[in-house]
Amino acid sequence: MATLRAPPPAAADGGIEENAMAILDTAGIKDARDLHDDRAAFLETVRSACLVADNPSPPSWRMYNAVFQILQDCSSLELTLASFHLLMELGKQYPRAYLTDSDSGKTLVVVNESWSPFQLRSDVACGEIGGNTRHMDHLFDPSRFSSLVEDMVETANDTDANNGIEHIKNMVMLQYLVSTLESDFVPRHIAYKESSDWVIFRESLLHMLLVSRKVAFKSLVKNCISLLLNQHCQEVENVISSEENSAKSVPDLDSSLAVVSFEFERKALASVQKLFIMVMNLDLIRKEADTMGLTSRADGCRNPILDLILDELTYNISYLSPFLQTFVECKWKLEIILQYFSKYCGKPAVRTRRSDNSHHDLTLENVLSLFSTAATTKAIVKKMSSEVVQLLLANAYQVCLCIEGEFSKDSGTTKKIGGTLLQISESFVSAFQNLRKTNLNIEILPFEKEALFIAVAMTSVLRNEQK
Fold it and tell me: What is the number of other CB atoms lying within 10 angstroms of the CB of residue 384?
């Protein structure tokens, strides 16, 4: 949830900026140790002036830019983490987009001239960046963002390099860039819910990034899926080898880097999921805008991310289980499962522009009804395989349990479930009974067996409560 903020104060005064930048101006004539110390001193100066001073002021464009260049150019873990944390704190203290209270509700305020790690427009005036455009070479345009994710996939597959400082820097960079996209996206999402103004998202960093012709969106999504699957495999391997690792009493430099690398891999995984969720929400908003006739050809055209994810999961069945275990956001996890079923069990009517066929949307209750008899169950198993059906149903039931346990339930997700927990539990048990009828020797794996056990128990408890 975005925080309401007052307008940010003026940028750091010239004296503070000049004193801070002077630390770096002489760096070129010093050796590596002195350069490291100068950069560390510069970061501390920026922190002191812009975050912890009695009357802090936001850093200038040049100061922000210098911190970001340190993150990219440094060769030490200390400076990598220091510059990253400083950028994250500055982003929270001086947001580019925020909400303010007004008579009509919450109003979105966007500081377009503020510094950003992204260069998404070709018409930025020199005055907006505090100098010559050559200072923008290190910023991330859409092509470079795609290359970052691609490099991370290649490094993750290279066991000799995936604990190195460059790998850690890439993961930290992805986390920072996604955080920047999120801090711009969230207040816009809140403002959009009140105004339904598509322009709010047309000008968002995320939309401008994805509609660029420099982004091969399908490749970007495939690489993000690869990162999720690689992380899942590494977590499994770490669990298996945890006892062996615990026998090592004195960690060396390589093992210390491995620990830090694993921690940032987990955070990079969370960043990929955040990116996916933001794009899914953007696609949903774009569909609403299309329906109302608010979009144009100038908004660009690309395939919805859900379609690309489903293509990967249906053509690479081995991806399905690790992806569903890794992708934990309930609303969109359920949507992925429902759309997976719709590819094999008949799709709802196609929704056209300016039409509303929402009553045709598939729900989990609808899906479970397809397994109400042995004959219909057998027909679906022929198309999807028993293993895939079990996996999808068990993950969908897991989502139902998570939603039921939430204090504040999402109405949209509840609508997608389509029934009470008792109804879903009964239908889930019935579906597995019919799966057994199609194959008496069917193997039920531990995850699915646990879900079935819980469904039987929940059915008994909920029935007793109704008596």
Answer: 19
**Residue 239: which residues within 8 A CB-CB, separation 6 or more?**
none
What DSSP string describes 34-73? HHHHHHHHHHHHHHIIIIISSS--PPPHHHHHHHHHHHHH
> In this predicted structure, what is the pLDDT of residue 156?
75
Q: Which of 260, 258, 304, 310 is nearest to 284 (CA)?
A: 304
Where does the pLDDT of residue 159 fall: very low under 50, low under 70, confident under 90, or very high at 90 and above? low
Any idea what the Cα angle at residue 132 is, between residues 128 and 137, rounded to 5°?
95
From the list 132, 299, 104, 304, the residue with the least C-alpha distance to 201 is 299
Q: How distant is the alpha carbon of residue 310 from its chain centre?
A: 17
Q: Which residues, at least 6 apart from 248, have a Cβ–Cβ distance to it below 8 Å?
A: 255
| Chain centroid to CA 81 | 21
Nearest Cα to Cα of residue 224 among 264, 271, 163: 271
C-alpha 394/C-alpha 432 separation (Å) is: 10
Q: Residue 95 — left, alpha, or beta (φ > 0 → left; ψ -120 to 50 → alpha)?
A: beta
3-class SS of residue 421: helix
Residues 12, 45: contact at Cβ < 8 Å? no
Q: Tell me the one-letter amino acid at 382.
A: K
User: How would you label 50-87 residue by residue, b for 16+ Cβ within 10 Å and e otherwise?
Assistant: bbeeeebbbbbbbbbbbbbbbbeebeebebbbbbbebb
CA pair distance 228, 230, nearest whole angstrom: 6
pLDDT band at 123 (very low <50, low <70, confident <90, very high): very low
